[in-house]
Amino acid sequence: MTTPFNSASLYVGDLPTDVTESSLFETFSQVGQVASIRVCRDAVTRRSLGYAYVNYHNAADAERALDTLNNTLVKGKPCRVMWSQRDPALRKSGVGNVFIKNLDKGIDHKALYDTFSAFGNILSCKVVTDTENSSKGYGFVHFETAESAEKAIQKVNGMSLNGQKVFVGHFLARKERVPSDSEQKFTNVYIKNLDSSVTEDEIRALVSDKGTISNLAIMKDEKGVSKGFGFINFEKPEDAKAAVEVLNNKEIKGKAIYAGRAQKKSERESELRHKYEQQRAERANKYQGVNLYVKNLEDNVDDEKLRAEFAAYGTITSSKVMSDEKAASKGFGFVCFSSPEEATRAVTEMNGKMMGTKPLYVALAQRKDIRKAQLEAQHAIRLKAGLPPGPMG
Length: 393
What we know:
By secondary structure, the chain is an alpha+beta fold. It has helices at 21-28, 59-69, 88-93, 109-116, 146-156, 174-177, 200-207, 237-247, 265-287, 303-310, 340-350, 368-384; strands spanning 9-13, 34-41, 48-56, 73-74, 77-78, 80-83, 97-101, 122-129, 135-143, 160-161, 164-165, 167-170, 188-192, 213-220, 226-234, 251-252, 255-256, 258-261, 291-295, 316-323, 329-337, 354-355, 358-359, 361-364. The strands form 8 sheets. Strands 2-3-1-6 form a 4-stranded antiparallel beta sheet. A 4-stranded antiparallel beta sheet has the order 8-9-7-12, with helices on one face. It has a 4-stranded antiparallel beta sheet with strand order 14-15-13-18, covered by helices on one side. Helix 1 (21-28) packs across helix 12 (368-384). It is flat.
């Protein structure tokens, strides 16, 4: 097969939750020199999310690993190895992504991959399984190009695989499959941004002509003061929809209120989690390649001195020396430039340079979890090579 893009990075999925960087190193170092391994973990619990990234020093080793280690058993479970697709636009666009259903339970990731690889380069391929690792009868294949996906749909849709006629079609994102609030049928309306003086009777008067109200409540605290939100439950979905149209963005006592379909707790949590992850990704992308980590600073170096030392290399958007609760320097800090080129130049010129009586250590800043994973992988590589372990901090 051909490498779909210039990369030596692999995505490894469907991993048992107890897999570590060290155990993956044992498997993936068999085919080439591994540069780093990162098992992705929950930010709070640190529990494995079931996937990892394995980076080789060259693309040839990565391609060999993809060809030979895909579906290899890792702690008794077949892992899924694919090229790492770092471009979120390509991952999320849905272009080239195919959905397959009515699969025979005997078809696994490898069989699905083998079936569809004839139509073009595959970025990812997965048969969805339950907790017992049994197929749920459907899966996904993400091709590098839309043309390959079209070819696969034309050739395989309606075909018999393992004696079952399968459906193959374009993958639709959840937001495309699930109707919007305006299209969903609901009877419970959520209202918020209410002035504390707004009463239930005032809200009832605004929507009572829309239909029969089963229940209406403005939520209050232990002192009986409005919390600024509430619920209106109608008997009929069309009445609830009409009430939303009347109330949403309506100004009541100087405040524009919100009205919409009342969501389940799981929906709200999912939405908030998605929003948090999106904001986190945006922050990470914003500082990717422009934020420098600087350590081995003398105690008298403050934010301004740090900025002055790096000012020659470009426009600095922020500089910060980290301090403890007594305002004493911790000996390290961060310098953020306006462009990756400026940051790269600063790393090249300033790493190892003397500032006062100490040589500086300067590198691109990394998230703590990524830095820790890389150190663990490097530690494992040194142990494998019979070298003394390096520092882990």
